[in-house]
């Protein structure tokens, strides 16, 4: 558990100030190490070697997790990774305009997502393919955004998974408002209470809206879990460009608990998120979770991380791979055999094939789509513009 | 909950309830009526609770409806708008008060990025029935950021609707209609007339109001057409009265709706008068008045006897208060524009 009271001011840095135009690679790595200090405060239930470690505070939140549940968590992560890799490949084939890779963040998202109940609302950023999966959204429903046919096709009311947010940090305030509404409606206060989760990255913590979201959720005791996936890089800007102290410790300044969990440990993430959601649904106000993880691929398919980070860093994080550590644990405790792993792989391949076929057959969106649903009520100015353009288009026989 | 008796309501010959109200009090009663009609309607903003807002427009609402329906919020415009988005997703109908026009910009991103787009982004599944109330315009001798006219920014953004009231009767009805609207509405209120005793009007609270997104011919005339909205409507009407003494008959149209623009009555008028002067306090470059001028020349080209002329604030930051009388369109500048049009 975090102990903000014991935190002291960070030691002054040696060497160039953080405002130096171009820090060396070594300085960047050093900066990452500085903000990853506090090892004992990192909640971890599975070591990178797959060993189960006891945690008196959080074990009880996963005491009911069976071997089958662990296998399901493993399956979730493998399928989500396979879908992510397929979408990445589809972008490379020119089928998608861009893709936002998830690689490396499967445990953070599956652990957090599986802690939610169907009544809990999720506000994602734009890399939350794993959260979407746990909300029952098929990966193919994400493709339209990146192929350019729509802005996301799922029903955000029915799934309780808000549309992806492209502007950094906007959704944090939107989530705070939604959670305030849950509280105003009296949906908090006992085991059946509702809660909201909002997902954002380490880079977003520099945005004013995230700060404002902290303030609002705190002063209104909103049942909101702030789930920050600190994947170490905001495109090419390292965490040290966002903060001088571990991000979870910011919660202290706003008056609610902050905690850092090993985001590559699906079991620990599940436990910590269940604890946080439980606190929210009982009406105890917001919680900040910093899931300490790593983006193992590029920011998006337009990005080239070899320009700004060392391959050594990537290699070091590969040893903490979230899927491998659960696989080792399952094997070590004989909770899964080769037939299970083979079946998961077969399911993953089938999912990828389904995704590929769907992508190839998506077709072009109808032209009138862009005019639809701009307004809920009639707008004669826009209606006239649509009618004029559709008539113009039709005058070419639909070929223009 | 009964409305407090500010003015003792009377009844007209048809038995309807009629009250003589200032524009600000009409808004207050309109907000109260909306809150009584729908428990999902919330007020939120800085100082809107105990204080009743810096202009007292929400006076008494928190006392009667409670702190969960009238929220004294943190000082955070992006927070007000951004959380209103989430509340709207949840099924509430938030009414946000921005304290002054020039303070809306910290919330601009939420308005144009989320408020305006969520309905389209969700294929119509998520509605954004929120209202953002903005006291706007100058003439109150305030310091900077307190007198601006930012409405054109919002009229430029698809997904938003923008309206402005100019009198107590419209204020009472339009605020209720905006709250009932399933689209997000930017609601611009002419702050300098909030408490003007000489702007009081008889508000018939049993009447059937005209539709929200419709402009209105306030005064018929034949010499030239003058179009205005918000605080400029009074300037236009005063100009028409003065012009009459010179034997000129001005037709005055209150736009009321800025997005979507209802220009049909303007086209009709210009086809009869052949001349148009558009009045607004906002700077003229790339503004609503530009849009009106462009559309009128497109629709009424063969009817126009002169170019469309505009009387705007200048393209400068809103000046210090001692200069604002020169910045703001006044009766003389409107009459001068009419004369220039007639001299063409």
Automatic annotation (TrEMBL), chain A:
Cofactor needs: thiamine diphosphate
Transmembrane regions: none
Domain Dehydrogenase E1 component, first and last residues per copy: 75-348
Domain of life: Bacteria
Region feature (Disordered): 1-22
Gene Ontology BP annotations: branched-chain amino acid catabolic process
A Pfam family it matches: E1_dh
Keywords: Oxidoreductase, Pyruvate, Thiamine pyrophosphate
Protein name: Pyruvate dehydrogenase E1 component alpha subunit
UniProtKB/TrEMBL annotation, chain B:
Domain Transketolase-like pyrimidine-binding per the UniProt entry, residue ranges: 21-195
Pfam families from the UniProt entry: Transket_pyr, Transketolase_C
GO molecular function terms noted in the UniProt entry: magnesium ion binding; oxidoreductase activity
Entry annotated with the keyword Oxidoreductase: yes
Keywords: Oxidoreductase, Pyruvate, Thiamine pyrophosphate
InterPro entries cross-referenced by the UniProt entry: THDP-binding (IPR029061), Transketo_C/PFOR_II (IPR009014), Transketolase-like_Pyr-bd (IPR005475), Transketolase_C (IPR033248)
Requisite cofactors: thiamine diphosphate
Keyword Oxidoreductase: yes
Protein name: Pyruvate dehydrogenase E1 component beta subunit
């Amino acid at each position: 558990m975090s102990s903000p009271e014991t935190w002291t001011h960070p030691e002054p840095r040696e060497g160039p100030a953080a405002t130096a135009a171009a820090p060396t690679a070594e300085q960047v790595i050093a900066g990452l190490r500085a903000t990853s200090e506090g090892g004992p405060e990192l909640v971890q239930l599975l070591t990178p070697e797959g060993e189960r470690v006891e945690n008196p505070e959080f074990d009880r939140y996963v005491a009911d997790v069976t071997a089958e549940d662990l296998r399901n968590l493993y399956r979730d992560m493998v399928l989500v990774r396979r879908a992510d890799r397929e979408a990445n490949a589809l972008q490379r084939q020119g089928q998608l305009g861009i893709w936002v890779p998830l690689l490396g963040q499967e445990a953070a998202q599956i652990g957090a997502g599986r802690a939610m109940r169907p009544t809990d609302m999720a506000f994602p950023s734009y890399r939350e393919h794993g959260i979407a999966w746990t909300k029952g959204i098929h990966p193919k429903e994400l493709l339209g955004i990146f192929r350019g046919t729509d802005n996301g096709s799922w029903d955000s009311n029915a799934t309780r998974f808000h549309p992806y947010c492209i502007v950094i940090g906007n959704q944090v305030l939107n989530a705070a408002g939604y959670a305030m509404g849950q509280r105003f409606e009296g949906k908090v206060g006992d085991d059946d209470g509702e809660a909201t989760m909002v997902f954002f990255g380490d880079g977003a913590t520099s945005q004013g809206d995230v700060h404002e979201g902290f303030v609002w959720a705190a002063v209104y005791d909103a049942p909101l879990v702030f789930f920050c996936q600190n994947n170490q890089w905001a495109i090419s800007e390292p965490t040290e460009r966002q903060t001088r102290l571990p991000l979870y410790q910011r919660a202290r300044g706003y008056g609610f608990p902050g905690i850092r969990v090993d985001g590559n440990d699906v079991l620990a993430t599940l436990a910590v998120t269940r604890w946080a959601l439980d606190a929210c649904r009982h009406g105890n106000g917001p919680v900040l979770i910093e899931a300490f993880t790593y983006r193992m691929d590029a920011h998006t398919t337009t990005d080239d991380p070899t320009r700004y980070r060392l391959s050594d860093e990537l290699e070091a994080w590969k040893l903490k791979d979230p899927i491998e550590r659960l696989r080792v644990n399952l094997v070590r405790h004989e909770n899964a055999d080769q037939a299970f792993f083979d079946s998961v792989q077969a399911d993953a391949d089938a999912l990828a094939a389904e995704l590929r076929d769907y992508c190839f057959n998506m077709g072009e969106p109808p032209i009138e789509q862009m005019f639809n649903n701009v307004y809920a009520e009639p707008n004669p100015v826009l209606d006239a513009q649509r009618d004029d353009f559709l008539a113009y288009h039709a005058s070419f026989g639909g070929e223009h | 909950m009964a409305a407090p008796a500010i003015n003792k309501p009377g009844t007209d010959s048809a038995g309807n309830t009629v009250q003589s109200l200032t524009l600000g009090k009409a808004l207050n009663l309109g907000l109260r009526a909306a809150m009584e009609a729908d428990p999902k309607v919330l007020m939120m903003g800085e100082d809107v609770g105990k204080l009743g807002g810096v202009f007292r427009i929400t006076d008494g609402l928190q006392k009667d409806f409670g702190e969960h329906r009238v929220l004294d919020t943190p000082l955070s415009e992006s927070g007000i708008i951004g959380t209103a988005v989430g509340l709207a997703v949840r099924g509430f109908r938030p009414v946000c008060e921005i304290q002054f026009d020039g303070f809306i910009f910290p919330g601009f991103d939420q308005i144009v990025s989320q408020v305006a787009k969520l309905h389209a982004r969700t294929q119509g599944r998520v509605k954004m029935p929120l209202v953002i109330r903005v006291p706007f315009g100058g003439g109150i001798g305030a310091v900077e950021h307190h007198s601006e006219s930012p409405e054109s920014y919002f009229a430029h953004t698809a997904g938003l609707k923008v309206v402005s009231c100019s009198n107590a009767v419209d204020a009472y009805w339009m605020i209720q209609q905006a709250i009932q609207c399933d689209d997000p509405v930017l609601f611009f209120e002419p702050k300098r007339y909030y408490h003007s005793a000489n702007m009081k009007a008889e508000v018939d609270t049993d009447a059937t109001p005209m539709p929200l997104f419709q402009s209105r011919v306030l005064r018929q005339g034949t010499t030239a057409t003058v179009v205005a909205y918000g605080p400029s409507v009074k300037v236009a009407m005063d100009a028409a009265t003065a012009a009459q003494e010179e034997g000129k008959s001005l037709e005055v149209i209150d736009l009321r709706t800025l997005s979507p623009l209802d220009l049909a009555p303007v086209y009709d008028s210009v086809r009869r008068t052949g001349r148009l002067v558009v009045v607004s306090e906002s700077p003229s470059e790339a503004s609503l008045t530009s849009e009106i001028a462009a559309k009128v020349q497109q629709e009424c080209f063969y009817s126009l006897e002169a170019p469309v002329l505009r009387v705007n604030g200048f393209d400068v930051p809103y000046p210090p208060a001692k200069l604002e009388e020169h910045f703001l369109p006044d009766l003389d500048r409107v009459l001068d524009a009419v004369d220039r049009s007639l001299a063409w």
